[in-house]
Design a protein that fits this description.
The complex is a heterodimer. Chain A is of the alpha/beta class. Chain A has ten helices and ten strands. In chain A, the strands form two sheets. A six-stranded mixed sheet of chain A has the order 6-7-8-3-9-10, with helices on both faces. The C terminus of chain A is likely disordered. Chain B is an alpha/beta fold. In chain B, the strands form two sheets. Chain B has a six-stranded mixed sheet. Chain B has a four-stranded antiparallel sheet with strand order 2-1-4-5, covered by helices on one side. In chain B, α3 packs across α4 and α3 runs parallel beside α6. Chain B has a single domain, classed as P-loop containing nucleotide triphosphate hydrolases (Rossmann fold), CATH 3.40.50. Chain B contains eleven helices and ten strands. Classes of the chains: A alpha/beta, B alpha/beta.
C-alpha cells in the first residue's frame, strides 16, 4: 500500500470556468520523492494544498496510510496534519514575524501534544534546529534577523519538528539565490534519507526536480500530462509540453547555448521568413 | 572596440549608524559598444548597487571613482546631465515587473513617458510605443496599449518594462535580474528577446544576475562580484571552461544541471571559499547566506 494515494482529485474555484485541478491521481511511497512540475497556473500548488488538506476538493480521494482524508472528521484531519507537513515558497511571508524561532519550531510539538514539557520541548527544538544547520543561539531571535536561506531552514525545521512522514514543499527554493538554493536542496535530500521522509516537491524548474526526486509528474492546465520515473521523463519525454519545459532550462555551457540559439534562429527563419530580419 | 561604459575604481557607500558604510570597494568594469556583459554574484555582493550607480538612482549613496558612459564622466556630474542619460543613455530593466510598473497608470502612458519628456509628440510616441510593444511580442499591441499592468501576466509585464527601458534608444541597457521573478519558459523567452533586441539596435547590455546558468547563453563577458569586489572577469567561454577563482567554481557547482549525475551533491559557495576545496559536509557557518535575503 502506498503511503499516500491521491485519486482523481478535482477542484474548481468559484467564478472560474475550468477546474484548477482536473482529475489528478498519483501515489507517493514511503521515503520516496515525487516532483510536481509545471508553469504558474498549471495547478501544481493547488494540488499540493488539496493533498495537505488546506483546501477541500470538489471530488476525489486522498488516502494517507489507509485513512481517507476527504470528508474525514476533524480529529482524523488533525492527526493527518502531523504526518503531512508543508514548507511554503516564500520564507518571508510564511513565518510569523512576531514569533521567536523557538516558538515557530516548537509550535507543532505543542499543538499536537507531542512535548508539553517546556524544557523537553526546547531540547527537541534545538535538536531539530541542529539538523537543519542552525543552533541554539538562534532560539530567541525573530525571523527578521535571518537571511532568505536561513529562514527557509527555519521553515523546514518547523515542518519536520513533529516528525512527519510526508513533507510537501511548494517551490521551497525559487525565491533563493542559486548558491543558497543548492544548500537547501542538499539539506532536503539529507533529511529525506535520515528521517525516511516522503517528499512531494513542487517546482517550475525541471533541473531542480531532477536533482531531488526519483519520480516526476508534469502538470499543465490542471492535469497531469506525464508521470514516470526520473530517467523516463528526462531521457524519453513523451509529452510535447514536457519537452518544451526541458528545452527552456538554461544549460551552463556557452557552446551548447550558442548552438541552441542558432538552431532556434534557423528553425524560425524557415517557418516565418522575414520576421527576424 | 570602444568602451561604451567604463567603470573604474568605483566605491559606493551608504549612511550608517556612526559612519558611512562602504558596500562597493573599487570595482573596475567595461562594457564595450554592442557587447553583453554579465555581472554575477549573490545577494549582497554589490552587483545591483554597482549597476544602479551608473544611473545614480539612490539619492543617499555616496559614489566615488569614475563612471564614463560614452566618454562622459558621470561621477560628480550635474544632476541635469545624469537625468539626461536616464532612458536615452542607459535604460534600466528592474527585477520585479509587479512593482516596477505604476499600477494606476495605463501601460501605454508609461511606455511613452521617456519620449514625451524629450519633446516627442504624443501621437508619434504612441505610434513608436505600439510598434515597439509589437516587436517585443505583445500580441495585439495596439489594443492592449491602454490596458493597466494588472491585466498582463508576469512575462508580458516584463516586456512592458523592457519597452520603457529601450524606447528612447539608449546605447546601454542595464537589466537587473530581469527574469528572476519568471517561470523557466518565460525566462527563456525574455532572455532571447533581450538578446535579439540588443543585437538589432547594437545596444550594449549589462546583465545583473545570481544565476550563472542563464549567463552562458547570453553574455560575451562575465564579471563575478563578491563582497563588493570583483573576484574574476573573463570572456564567457574562458570563465565556464576554466573558472579561476574558487568563488566562481562554487557558483558553477551550485547549479542543478540537466546533463549532470543527479546523485552528485551540489556544491555551495561556502564549500569553496572557506576551504578552497570541496568538502562533503553542509557548512555549519551560514556565512555564505548572510545578506542572501532579497
Amino acid at each position: 500500500m502506498s503511503l499516500l494515494a491521491v485519486t482523481e482529485v478535482t477542484k474548481r474555484f468559484a467564478g472560474q470556468h475550468a477546474p484548477a485541478v482536473d482529475s489528478v491521481s498519483f501515489t507517493l511511497e514511503r521515503g520516496s520523492a515525487l516532483g510536481l512540475v509545471g508553469e504558474s497556473g498549471s495547478g501544481k500548488s493547488t494540488t499540493a494544498r488539496l493533498v495537505a488538506g488546506l483546501i477541500k476538493p470538489d471530488a476525489g480521494s486522498v488516502v494517507l496510510d489507509g485513512t481517507e482524508l476527504v470528508g474525514a472528521p476533524r480529529a482524523t484531519l488533525q492527526a493527518a496534519r502531523r504526518e503531512l507537513q508543508f514548507v511554503f515558497q516564500d520564507p518571508f511571508s510564511s513565518l510569523n514575524p512576531r514569533m521567536r524561532v523557538s516558538e515557530l519550531v516548537g509550535e507543532g510539538l505543542l499543538v499536537h501534544g507531542i512535548e508539553r514539557d517546556a524544557a523537553k520541548r526546547r531540547d527537541r527544538v534545538v535538536e531539530t534546529l541542529e539538523s537543519v544547520g542552525l543552533d541554539s543561539s538562534h532560539l530567541d531571535r525573530y525571523p527578521r534577523s535571518f537571511s532568505g536561506g536561513q529562514r527557509q531552514r527555519i521553515a523546514i525545521a518547523r515542518a519536520i519538528a513533529v516528525r512527519p512522514r510526508v513533507l510537501i514543499c511548494d517551490e521551497p527554493v525559487s525565491s533563493l539565490d542559486v548558491s543558497v538554493q543548492a544548500q537547501v536542496l542538499n539539506l532536503l535530500g539529507d533529511l529525506r534519507e535520515k528521517l525516511d521522509l516522503a517528499l512531494l516537491f513542487i517546482a517550475h524548474d525541471l533541473a531542480v526536480v531532477r536533482y531531488l526526486c526519483d519520480r516526476v509528474a508534469v502538470m499543465n492546465g490542471g492535469r497531469i500530462v506525464e508521470i514516470g520515473s526520473r530517467d523516463q521523463v528526462y531521457e524519453h519525454p513523451q509529452d510535447a509540453y514536457t519537452r518544451a519545459l526541458l528545452d527552456a532550462v538554461p544549460v551552463p555551457d556557452p557552446a551548447r547555448e550558442r548552438a541552441r540559439r542558432s538552431a532556434l534562429a534557423a528553425s524560425r527563419s524557415v517557418t516565418a521568413p522575414g520576421v527576424n530580419s | 572596440m570602444t568602451a561604451l561604459l567604463e567603470i573604474s575604481g568605483l566605491r559606493v557607500s551608504y549612511p550608517g549608524v556612526d559612519e558611512p558604510v562602504e558596500v562597493v570597494h573599487g570595482v573596475d568594469l567595461v562594457v564595450p559598444q554592442g557587447r553583453k556583459v554579465a555581472l554575477v554574484g549573490e545577494s549582497g555582493s554589490g552587483k545591483s548597487v554597482t549597476a544602479r550607480s551608473v544611473l545614480q538612482l539612490d539619492p543617499d549613496a555616496t559614489i566615488a571613482g569614475s563612471i564614463r558612459l560614452g566618454g562622459q564622466e558621470l561621477v560628480g556630474a550635474a544632476p541635469k546631465i545624469v537625468r539626461g542619460i536616464r532612458g536615452s543613455g542607459a535604460g534600466l530593466v528592474f527585477q520585479d515587473p509587479l512593482t516596477s510598473l505604476n499600477p494606476v497608470m495605463r501601460i501605454g502612458w508609461q511606455i511613452m513617458q521617456p519620449l514625451v519628456i524629450r519633446g516627442v509628440s504624443k501621437k508619434e510616441a504612441r505610434e513608436r510605443g505600439i510598434a515597439l510593444l509589437d516587436r517585443l511580442g505583445v500580441v495585439n499591441a495596439a489594443a492592449r496599449f491602454d490596458d493597466y499592468p494588472h491585466q498582463f501576466s508576469g512575462g508580458m509585464r516584463q516586456r512592458v518594462v523592457i519597452a520603457i527601458a529601450i524606447i528612447a534608444e539608449p546605447a546601454l541597457l542595464i537589466a537587473d535580474e530581469p527574469t528572476t521573478a519568471l517561470d523557466v519558459q518565460v525566462q527563456a523567452q525574455v532572455l532571447e528577446l533581450l538578446h535579439e533586441v540588443a543585437d538589432e539596435r547594437g545596444m550594449g547590455v549589462l546583465l545583473i544576475t545570481h544565476d550563472l546558468a542563464i549567463v552562458a547563453g547570453f553574455a560575451d563577458d562575465v564579471v563575478v562580484m563578491r563582497h563588493g569586489e570583483v573576484v574574476e572577469s573573463a570572456p564567457v567561454d574562458e570563465l565556464f571552461a576554466a573558472p579561476k577563482h574558487p568563488y566562481t567554481r562554487g557558483l558553477l557547482g551550485a547549479i542543478p544541471r540537466l546533463d549532470s549525475d543527479p546523485s552528485v551533491r551540489l556544491t555551495s559557495v561556502a564549500d569553496y571559499v572557506d576551504t578552497f576545496e570541496t568538502v562533503d559536509d553542509e557548512p555549519a557557518a551560514p556565512a555564505a547566506e548572510n545578506g542572501a535575503a532579497r
